[in-house]
Amino acid sequence: MMTSRDNLVYFCYLHRTGLTVLALSLLLLLWPMVESNPYNLGLSNLIAIYVIVVLGLNLFIGYTGQISLGHAAFFAIGAYGSAIGTTTLGWSAWPVMLLVALAAAFIAFTIGLPALKLSGHYLAMATLGFNIVIYTLLVQWDTITGGPSGFAGIPYLSVGGLVFDTEIRIHYLVWSFAMISLLSSLNLVRSGTGRGLAALAQDETAAAALGVNIRSAKVKVFVMSAVLASLAGSLFAHCYAFVSPDSFNIFVSVDFVIMVVVGGMGSIWGTLLGTAFITLLPEWIEALDAYKDIIHGLILVLILLFLPQGLVTGITDAVRTRIALGRGKHA
Amino acid sequence: MLELLKVSKWFGGLPALQDVSLRIEPGRITALIGPNGAGKSTLINCISGVDRAGEGRILLDGHAIEKLPAHKIAAQGVARTFQNLKVFARLSVLDNVLTGLTVAAESSFIISMLRLPALRHQERQLRLKALEALDRFELAPKAGWPASALSYGDKKRMEMARAFVSEPRLVLLDEPVAGLNSEETAKIARHIRQQRRAGHTMLLVEHDMELVMEVADQVVVLDSGRCIASGPPAQVRNNPLVLEAYLGRMEATA
Q: B75: distance to nearest CA of chain A, Å?
């Protein structure tokens, strides 16, 4: 007999993903009432923007077993695309955002198709090169991009009469995007297509024999991750009203990869933690700012040495296995 | 059902399969035996598209499949297990079996991301199917376990559940009892017979003669990439060619 309490527990278990998303959304809805310091809000807004990039990158790394070392370039395409489209050309922001994302998709497709055909990490090389090309363009082509001193005067986004020009308003804007990306990613990995991707990440031969079109799946995820990075870049440009090349160099790309690794490869929820941790780290150890790259590198090496699946995933996997084996002994 | 016509395959200059022709009849178990290196796994790999046959034709219900990539052959209803286990260690047991329904569950990225009611309905149906398959292979109580926590024998049966869950036209079993003790072997034998009663067609590659003689309707013997005999188990067992090429060699090593 199921009591009503059992029913409730079962309901919560069944809908655990939806309920967690709902709870987090509520928390984010109320957050600006608790935290009104604009500096701290600005930090959490930056986390939201990075989360969108890292979600896509995590799907790519965690579900196709490939690595992109150039996601900052797609982030740059979104940011500079929106900046140039709205400021230089004077087009309206939302259509430009979509157009630029489409362009990013096309570029990712062109890079991904040949590089992902080959087994091995050719895509890592190709994206690394691509990032360097884009960064050089941003610095050198100063008539269009503003060069090393950056691109200023980008308009804020608006919906109807509401302009997203304060940290609180931006909070609601960027976290809406981040939560939609999070929910979509969760939905994707819980679907049949997502299971095919999980299979692909762990064993390509087995996945193919189960009916996963390996090559096409890799390209699709790569393109999707580029679109997310581009959308995040557009938000970044409109929220800060200013962009400069330093936000898009290869070290930023590497930081995105570190965020994935800290959060755990293939862990959608871990992405939130990994991104928040790496974004906030410089705030906590301000004194060590000069050694930031060394510290990030150390974190990466230590995690990959001891928990190759990533920090959060590595720990949860170990706990799950322990629990299952413990239960097996008692049964 | 499945017909191989003069299939050959070389690795470098070495022939792994030479002019192998065989027929697999629907609803029956065809066993493929032969000494190590005879080309049994290569044959399974060629049928499932993991390897490509160099020459010859492979017909599934009259349609040529020898040039199709693995995922398209899977979509045609050919499922397989692997000799050295290809278990997705990080997925749950249930999700592992659900990957066996990849072809049925395939939908576009956009639809998957929106998780519309139609997709949820389909997910529930697939989940039920996977649970049924787990039940058939006596793994239902462990459905929620991470696959990495299963014993070797359980993993073997989980792979079988994953292969059979989609009700494929043909299942290729690559050494399903290799490395198992007699108790676990008996369990697998029971499962194989049960699946045959349910009408499944199987190609069984196996070293365990006892199992082959017990479950197979038809036995094909490979030696050095060539098909040297085929027929009902009792007949093949007494074929002098087979005794010499296969069993004779086994006695020599024993």
A: 6
**Helix H or strand E encompassing A242:** strand A242-243
Give the separation between CA B43 and CA B32, rounded to whole angstroms.
9
Q: Does the CB of A270 have a partner CB in chain B at under 8 Å? A: no
**Model's pTM, two decimal places?**
0.90
Q: How many other CB atoms are found less than 10 A from the CB of residue A291?
A: 12
* pLDDT one-digit tens code per residue, B131-178: 999 999 999 999 999 999 999 999 999 999 999 999 999 999 999 999
Kindly determine whether residue A324 and residue B141, on different chains, have CB atoms separated by under 8 Å: no
Nearest alpha-carbon partner for B216 in B28, B20, B26, B23 = B28
Beta strand pairing call for A242-243 and B63-64: unpaired
Give the integer Cα–Cα distance in Å for A53 and A272. Answer: 11
Q: In whole angstroms, what is the distance from residue A311 CA to residue B216 CA?
A: 49
Query: A200 to chain B: nearest residue by CA?
Result: B88
Q: Which chain A residues contact residue B48 at CB under 8 A?
A: 209
pLDDT beneath 70: ranges in chain B? 246-254
Q: How far is A234 from chain B (nearest CA, A)?
A: 21
* Structure ipTM over 0.85, yes or no: yes
Split at pLDDT 50, 70, 90, the class of A35 is: confident
Cβ <8 Å between B119 and A191:
yes
Mean pLDDT across the stretch A268-295? 84
B146 DSSP assignment? B
Q: Does B80 touch chain A (CB under 8 A)?
A: yes
Judged by average pLDDT, the poorest of A10-19, A117-126, A319-328, B189-198 is A319-328
Residue with tokens 């994206």: A127
| Two structure tokens written together for A77 | 């395409």
